[in-house]
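INFO  loader      accepted 1 record
INFO  loader      residues=259
INFO  predictor   begin
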Amino acid sequence: MAKYERLAREAARKYAGDPKKAWTEMRRLMDVPAALGRARIVSSKRMANINQVVEMSLDQLQELRRPVASILDIDQKRVCELLKLWYDQKIQESTILERVSCLRRVMVLIGKAQVIPKGKAWERIKKEHGVPVPLKGRSIIAQFAKGWHDLGVDSAPVIAAVAAEDAVCGVQMEMMLLWGLRLNESVQLQPRVSFDLAGQFLLVHRGTKGGKTRKVLLSPDDSVRARQLEVLGRAFELGDKHPKGILAIPGLRLDQMKR
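INFO  predictor   done
INFO  writer      dumping tokens
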């Protein structure tokens, strides 16, 4: 039995015929995991998004004359009817994908993962129910080169010019170049705390995707490794000047530092 299937059934019995009240009762007692199988629960903002999508979907199913007594009655056909409505309303593809993601999370938690499966199975279901294929959608494949090297940009003079304006920003860019850090990771890095001298790797956890800690190993190439350690030494010095040991300009908020 899924984590909240019993809760869903109890709420449905308690508020028979009123799916929104049943959902409200469930939401009050639910701790939705940030990802299935993980202990961390979703943020209040994410939970608010899920709640908004579920309540909106229940209302729209009523308008489409496809009402449900509880969220347990939501099936593939009803979800596809919602998709058709959203496409008719010219809702952006990214918004539709987010709504489907919210509904899928709830379906999995109440033991109905088959309603919105992933991958080819979901694409097949949409096709079978006549859901239109959008002309434009979100793509995970880059349509053109975006890297400096691919665009013929020499990073050295650019970073040198930035460093001349501000040493912290220059080192942040060098850390991204030599250590493969993302922007979020570079501006929140605590250099001295993050570097494992014995293991010779950088342990990155602040600003990472999904809050997952990851190791960034030193390069096996001697010349690159020497450059990595040299820039890391300057990152130590600049991080030591920040009250929190962060490679950032003291007094600036995260959004300011990123800009």
